[in-house]
Write a structure and sequence with these properties.
6 helices
Amino acid sequence: MPETIDHNSTGARKPGRPRYVKTEHDQKIVTMFAQAGLPHDKIAFMVGIGLKTLKRYYRDDLKRGHIEQVTHALTKVREAANNGEPWAIKWILAVFAGMSEQTLVRQQVQQLGKDGNPIDPPAGNTYIIKEDERKLIEKKLDDEV
């Protein structure tokens, strides 16, 4: 935003609050709080500036902090899925493969025999997915990280 100039004989800025100067210390604070998921108005308060000033000077830091926060969470979900956690597997299938809980149940029902018992019962609390679906999910997860 261009500086507002008072058209008096000296050409000095109009009186008012001095222009904010971005510092490395404030940048670290903004990034750290953005990584923690703190709302922007709270981050601005902690730095001692207004919300508009925060967004003006720290837009990239806010985005970077948010991306790092989401990446960390996705990494934990992926680790849980790799360890066979059913909730993580369901979440990954729902988000990345567009599969809902109903789709998963439908697939399980399709694997039942005429008597209602599983044709080939899976070990433990696992979900059976096709090899190409698994590869697609892994590729999408790798692309996200």
